[in-house]
Design brief:
CATH class: Alpha Beta
Strand content: 15-25%
Shape: globular
CATH topology: Rossmann fold
Largest sheet: 7 strands, mixed
Structural class: alpha/beta
CATH architecture: 3-Layer(aba) Sandwich
Number of domains: 1
Distance between the termini: 68 Å
Radius of gyration: 19 Å
Helix content: 25-40%
Length: 177
């Protein structure tokens, strides 16, 4: 009898039945990274000439990562009175108009090419791969004693015309490339 009711529901609706499924909460590590990333925005200054910066802040996420779902609650909050948009990206061609680019560890093999693509653009590049900042990324998440920490490549930030607050720099490990 239940099978007939299910079949009738499918036929009546013209599609599969929809079941509300709770989305799993992202791992704590990625919740912490999302909180850090949002806070980084308060300590980085983009040039006023950066494309679209007056309209809102666009955070691109490149690669397979739990950070995309961890950032969703952050996206609900405006940043400095402007919209905050989280945009999953498929590849380096999608980088136009992003202000922050998070590059997941899944992109390790393509990392040098991705960073070459962003060179000269006012994009805050953030990664989670050993050697990210030495390759020219601006901020890299690292795990130190089981806790999320970060390192910053000041020269890469300067090349991207980003000004990083001394308050943020004091909390980071500074990396020379």
């Amino acid at each position: 009898m239940a099978g007939i009711a299910l079949l009738a529901t499918i036929l009546a609706g013209g599609s599969e039945p929809r079941v509300a499924v709770a989305q799993p909460e992202p791992p704590l590590e990625y919740q912490v990274k999302a909180a850090f990333l949002y806070q980084f925005l308060n300590f980085v200054e983009w040039p006023t000439t950066a494309p679209g910066i007056a309209d809102g802040m666009i955070i691109g996420v490149l690669g397979e990562t739990a950070l995309t779902s961890a950032l969703q609650p952050v996206a609900a909050r405006p940043f400095r009175g402007r919209p905050l948009v989280i945009r999953p990206l498929r590849g380096p061609r999608d980088l136009a108009a992003v202000h922050v680019l998070f590059i997941a560890g899944s992109e390790k093999e393509r990392l040098p090419g991705i960073l070459r693509t962003t060179r000269g653009a006012s994009i805050l590049t953030i990664g989670e791969v050993d050697g990210f900042t030495r390759l020219g990324g601006v901020i890299n998440f690292v795990i130190v004693d089981g806790k999320v920490a970060f390192e910053i490549n000041v020269r890469a930030a300067e090349e991207a015309r980003l000004r990083i607050s001394s308050k943020l720099l004091r909390l980071a490990r500074i990396v020379e490339d």
